[in-house]
Amino acid sequence: MKAEYNTRQRAIILDFLKENSAHVSARDIVAHLKEQGVCVGTATVYRTLDRLCEQGVVRKFIIDERSGACYQYAEGAECNEHFHLKCVSCGALIHVDCGFVAEMEKHFLCDHGFTVSSGRTVIYGVCSSCSKIDAPSGTNHHCCKGHEH
Amino acid sequence: MKAEYNTRQRAIILDFLKENSAHVSARDIVAHLKEQGVCVGTATVYRTLDRLCEQGVVRKFIIDERSGACYQYAEGAECNEHFHLKCVSCGALIHVDCGFVAEMEKHFLCDHGFTVSSGRTVIYGVCSSCSKIDAPSGTNHHCCKGHEH
DNA sequence: TTGCGTGCAAAGGTTTTGCATGGCA
DNA sequence: TGCCATGCAAAACCTTTGCACGCAA
């Protein structure tokens, strides 16, 4: 068994995750720390996140391999029932936390013997805002909210 | 509208994808080409795969951000009405064609205003065979049917 | 004091990009 | 011939690792 130290860095990272109900990437955390003038190394962020993940304190998502992994504070067991909808038009990430998720998991398990990993799964499509705007132009303007290539 | 050229490289990559019903990574393709003594640059592989993805000819999966993306030949347009279940353990891709898919699309559209793109969406989890085998050892043997690291 | 956690820098990996060249139509 | 696709190398990017030092318990 390993000893657990409560360090200043760990507290800062955890606080930031708690403040942000949405996902944050490792890069976001590093940027946030730099903004605050706190000196925390990138490696420490990753190591801390890894440890927090193992402890189940935070959850890790892979939404887009380009931008790396996202982390989210796990508030409780209820977050297990949670899907992500990704809009391929504007890039928005929408959280779905309704009872349908459980229903879905049950269906796939009972009828297909498939144990869904909701944390890993991202459902692609077009969000409500974009489907209103969307002309049937055929060209999809990919995504990338916050990214300019 | 862009012209589409049928190049030797594109044909080779597509053939390799067709031969391999399981997923292959960009690195697999590069290795395969090198084995065959065919000279194809890494950048070409990625660019070709991107193009094939956009055309819907191949599908792209992110199973583990460490090992990069995996690609798989998409067999036909009929797959639009399906969901895909991807087993993160053995890499199997399972087609789901039951009425639940329509139900699911309806739910997301009505309750969340989100138009699901089923062809693009992959649901991750563990298939029935793997969940039987799976000992609660904690170590997951990742995926990689046909990979030896 | 013990040994876990940290910071820095360097390395690892995958994927993208720039530029001149090759090749399809 | 026009212009898309390619190859090579370099870059960008996220993440991990090694090592010496700092700091919690």
Characteristics:
homodimer, Dna Ligase, domain 1, three-stranded mixed sheet, DNA-binding, 36% helix, disordered C terminus, 5 helices, 2 domains, globular
What's the topology here?
2 copies of one chain form a homodimer.
Chain A: H1 8-19, E1 24-25, H2 26-35, H3 42-54, E2 58-64, E3 68-73, E4 83-87, E5 93-96, H4 100-112, E6 115-116, E7 122-126, H5 128-133
Parallel strand pairs in A: 4-7
Antiparallel strand pairs in A: 1-3, 2-3, 4-5
Helix pairs in contact in A: 2-3
Chain B binds a DNA duplex (25 and 25 nucleotides) through residues 2-10, 25-27, 39-44, 46-48, 51, 65-69.
Briefly say what this structure is.
The structure is a homodimer of 149-residue chains. Chain A is an alpha+beta fold. Chain A contains five helices and seven strands; from the N terminus they run αβααββββαββα.
Structure description:
The structure is a homodimer of 149-residue chains. Chain A is α+β, with helices and mostly antiparallel strands and 149 residues long. In chain A, 36% of the residues lie in helices and 21% in strands. Chain A has two domains: 2-73, Winged helix-like DNA-binding domain superfamily/Winged helix DNA-binding domain (Arc Repressor Mutant, subunit A); 78-131, Dna Ligase, domain 1 (2-Layer Sandwich). The first copy, chain A, has helices at 8-19, 26-35, 42-54, 100-112, 128-133; strands at 24-25, 58-64, 68-73, 83-87, 93-96, 115-116, 122-126. In chain A, strands 1-3-2 form a three-stranded antiparallel beta sheet. A three-stranded mixed beta sheet of chain A has the order 5-4-7. In chain A, a hairpin with a 3-residue loop joins strand 2 (58-64) and strand 3. The longest helix of chain A has 13 residues, at 42-54. The termini of chain A are far apart. The relative contact order of chain A is 0.13. Mean pLDDT of chain A is 78; it is low at 135-149. Chains A and B meet through helix 4, strand 6 and strand 7 of A and helix 4, strand 6 and strand 7 of B. Strand 6 of chain A pairs antiparallel with strand 7 (122-126) of chain B, so a sheet runs across the interface. Chain B binds a DNA duplex (25 and 25 nucleotides) through helix 1 and helix 3.
